[in-house]
Design a protein that fits this description.
By secondary structure, the protein is α/β, with parallel strands linked by helices. 38% of the residues lie in helices and 22% in strands. Bound molecules: NADP nicotinamide-adenine-dinucleotide phosphate. NADP nicotinamide-adenine-dinucleotide phosphate binds at residues 147-151, 174, 176-177, 206-207, 210-211, 214, 225-227, 230, 233-234, 248-251, 282, 383, 385, 411, 452, 456.
């Protein structure tokens, strides 16, 4: 069995605690992947000290040269795509086609970042005074704390780490306890590509490691993806300590199917949206809002198809749905099934642990569909993060939009309709960071901004061009070459 280490101050090191946690395959818990460090605040303190030195070196490196290293990272990911996807599925369970997509998102993000090194645009604008120059430009900020969840073990760290590095920051990275192996490999790849060692620090460990990063006075900015509960705590600390903070948190995303929808297309969308990644996506479709004219027909089509999904090891051919990531997640799903029943919703499919044969060795749960779910009920309002879909019947598009918006979260939404007017109304009216027309709630592309409104986020976006604003500070320069004192707002008015 391999014992892994954290990467601190340019070396692979054991944790100060001497403690390790086992990392097991959620599809078959007999399969032990390795032992990973359970670090604590002492490891974080060493990592931040080193990252400060890394920052001094890295911020002086021209942005295009920083981009060249990220291009090499992309090249290595291309070469190792299949191998990395396989180890990701082994540690978190989603089918291999999905982990390949996860790696591809990292590749896309690397190549986007590489070219951004030759942009990082500022603005040059006319001054209101004669013989005076006015411009804005970008500066690196400092040590960036990066804290990530388990469900996109490669893509989410790359969404944060690559732009952070491109902008000239150094990074202290804490991956989720459930996916340390992917974090380890990502750091290996960054080093292989030529990143100076002190620019990246990897501290494995439980939530206390994340907490120590957030509370460290020399960590200038924090980028977090995870639950709204953890994000709220981080937000309090960062507010008190005046830190720049990007939060990407929970979702309760809905797909709306209207009477004029292409039902076959919507069916493919809902199966992928609700049960892909076993429902453990921030953008997973956990609510299906269906207009009354097609409700009964569509629900029947859906239940028939969902009942035929193949559960199993994501590394085996033919698997549609993998396990939940751990036993606590499966128990949480069970709790919500009980809540749904108590609230009077109709269990139309699933509702149980999936057992039999190899499924007995993993954290499997049947794809589950509740119908007659009431808007406002807990089942309809709270994030479950598992393969549980709630169906809500509505009379028209206006009611569908109201139900969509009447939750605390606001990440993504989707509408199936052939009516172009309704499509554009939806884009305007739905309170989400992303709305898809005739596609499921899943499907973000690396070169567009990604994020949500309300309790999903705090106003920042990942991906695309906007994330570079988060990871850099705008500075303004004025150059007065008139040779005289020119007073803005006074001398020319
Ligand atoms: P989580 O429990 O909040 O964990 C996220 C990360 O925070 C993990 O690395 C975790 O470490 C760490 N952490 C735990 N306690 C902490 C603390 N007190 N201070 C600092 N860090 C701490 O979330 P998860 O269960 O991994 O992921 C599922 C959640 O992520 C869902 O709510 C989902 O919607 C959300 N998510 C959102 C997006 C988005 O872009 N909006 C994308 C993906 C996922 P440990 O693993 O060691 O506990």
């Amino acid at each position: 069995m391999t014992t892994y280490k954290s990467f601190i101050a340019g070396e692979w090191v054991e944790p100060s605690t001497g403690e390790y946690a086992e990392n097991r395959n959620p599809a078959d818990t007999r399969d032990l992947i390795g032992r990973f460090p359970r670090g604590d605040v002492r490891d974080v303190n060493r990592a931040v000290e080193s990252a400060k030195k890394g920052f001094a070196l890295w911020k002086a490196t021209p942005a295009p040269a920083r981009g060249d290293i990220l291009r090499r990272v992309g090249d290595i990911l291309v070469r190792r795509k299949d191998e990395v996807a396989d180890l990701m599925t082994r540690e978190m369970g989603k089918p291999i086609a999905e982990t390949k997509g996860d790696v591809q998102e990292g590749i896309d993000t690397a190549y986007y970042a590489a070219t951004e090194g030759r942009r990082l645009f500022g603005h040059t604008v006319p001054s209101e005074l004669r013989n005076k120059w006015a411009m804005s430009f970008r500066r690196p900020i400092g040590v960036a704390g990066i804290i990530t969840p388990f469900n996109f073990p490669l893509a989410i760290p790359t969404w944060k780490i690559f732009p952070a590095l491109l902008c000239g920051n150094s990074v202290v990275f804490k991956p989720a306890t459930d996916v340390p192996h992917t974090g380890h490999v990502l750091v290996e790849i960054l080093l292989e590509a030529g990143l100076p060692p002190e620019v990246i620090q990897l501290v494995h460990g439980p939530g206390r490691v994340g907490d120590a990063i957030v509370n460290h006075p020399d960590v200038a900015l924090v980028s977090f993806t995870g639950s709204t509960e953890t994000g709220s705590k981080i937000g309090e600390t960062c507010g008190r300590m005046h830190k720049r903070l990007s939060l990407e948190m929970g979702g309760k995303n809905a797909m709306i199917v209207l009477n004029d929808a292409d039902l076959d297309l919507a069916l493919e969308g809902i199966l992928w949206g609700a049960f892909g990644t076993t429902g453990q996506r921030c953008t997973a479709t956990s609510r299906l809002i269906v207009q009354d004219g097609v409700h009964d027909t569509f629900v029947k089509m859906l239940v028939d198809r969902a009942a035929k999904l193949t559960l199993g090891d994501g590394r085996k051919k033919g698997t549609d749905v993998g396990p939940l990531v751990n036993e606590a997640s499966r128990e949480n799903v069970e709790r919500y099934v009980a809540i749904g029943k108590d609230e009077g919703a109709t269990l139309a499919l699933g509702g149980q642990r999936a057992t039999g044969g190899n499924l007995d060795n993993g954290f499997f749960f049947q794809p589950t569909i509740f119908t007659n779910v009431k808007a406002g009920s807990r089942l309809e309002q709270e994030e479950i993060f598992g393969p549980v879909l709630s169906v809500i019947k509505v009379k028209d598009a206006a009611e569908a939009f109201t139900v969509n918006n009447d939750v605390a979260y606001g990440l993504s939404s989707s509408v199936y309709t052939r009516d172009v007017n309704v499509s554009f109304q939806a884009l305007q009216v739905l309170d989400n960071g992303i709305t898809y027309i005739n596609a499921p709630t899943i499907g973000a592309e690396a070169h567009l901004p990604f994020g949500g409104v309300k309790a999903t986020g705090n106003g920042h976006r990942e991906g695309g061009w906007e994330v570079y604003e988060f990871f850099s500070e705008t500075k303004v320069g004025y150059v007065d070459y008139s040779g005289a004192l020119q007073r803005a707002q006074i001398d020319n008015y």
